[in-house]
Amino acid sequence: MFNDIGALELVTIVVLAVLVFGPDKLPKVIQDVMRTVRKIREFSESAKADIRSELGPEFKDFEFEDLNPKTFIRKQLDNDELGLKEIRNGFDLKKEMAEVTDAVHSRDTEASSGSSGSSEGGRIDMTKKPEDAGKDDRPPFDADAT
């Protein structure tokens, strides 16, 4: 619950509580706060139990933490029924980016050296316009459509 509170912040909160409530009222305030937290927990647990009972036996494994999108996705990625690990492992983003970078750099060097535009090694020169494409192939501009 207090994962992001450091020791200095905790000491500061305790000192402020002593200054605000005083040393004589502080134990009663702590008891009241603990009682309130306990009641809130009991209320939330009973609400969860009511929801589970209303959903029926199909949702007996339902966890409310699954409603958090990050938890849901993490759980689905761990559960490999859909084959997501295979897809994730088959897609290497660094390799794809390296190929794109190589293609861009080779295009820049070919354009600067005045290459004839032939496709070498299965690559297509994207700087050269197709021969059959003309200016008449463009669709008419429709100002009302935009």
From TrEMBL:
<keyword id="KW-0811">Translocation</keyword>
<comment type="subunit">
    <text>The Tat system comprises two distinct complexes: a TatABC complex, containing multiple copies of TatA, TatB and TatC subunits, and a separate TatA complex, containing only TatA subunits. Substrates initially bind to the TatABC complex, which probably triggers association of the separate TatA complex to form the active translocon.</text>
</comment>
<protein>
    <recommendedName>
        <fullName>Sec-independent protein translocase protein TatB</fullName>
    </recommendedName>
</protein>
<keyword id="KW-0813">Transport</keyword>
<feature type="compositionally biased region" description="Basic and acidic residues">
    <location>
        <begin position="122"/>
        <end position="146"/>
    </location>
</feature>
<feature type="region of interest" description="Disordered">
    <location>
        <begin position="102"/>
        <end position="146"/>
    </location>
</feature>
<dbReference type="GO" id="GO:0043953">
    <property type="term" value="P:protein transport by the Tat complex"/>
</dbReference>
<keyword id="KW-0472">Membrane</keyword>
<keyword id="KW-1003">Cell membrane</keyword>
<dbReference type="InterPro" id="IPR018448">
    <property type="entry name" value="TatB"/>
</dbReference>
<dbReference type="Pfam" id="PF02416">
    <property type="entry name" value="TatA_B_E"/>
</dbReference>
<dbReference type="GO" id="GO:0008320">
    <property type="term" value="F:protein transmembrane transporter activity"/>
</dbReference>
<dbReference type="InterPro" id="IPR003369">
    <property type="entry name" value="TatA/B/E"/>
</dbReference>
<comment type="function">
    <text>Part of the twin-arginine translocation (Tat) system that transports large folded proteins containing a characteristic twin-arginine motif in their signal peptide across membranes. Together with TatC, TatB is part of a receptor directly interacting with Tat signal peptides. TatB may form an oligomeric binding site that transiently accommodates folded Tat precursor proteins before their translocation.</text>
</comment>
<comment type="similarity">
    <text>Belongs to the TatB family.</text>
</comment>
<feature type="transmembrane region" description="Helical">
    <location>
        <begin position="6"/>
        <end position="22"/>
    </location>
</feature>
<keyword id="KW-1133">Transmembrane helix</keyword>
<keyword id="KW-0653">Protein transport</keyword>
<keyword id="KW-0812">Transmembrane</keyword>
<dbReference type="GO" id="GO:0033281">
    <property type="term" value="C:TAT protein transport complex"/>
</dbReference>
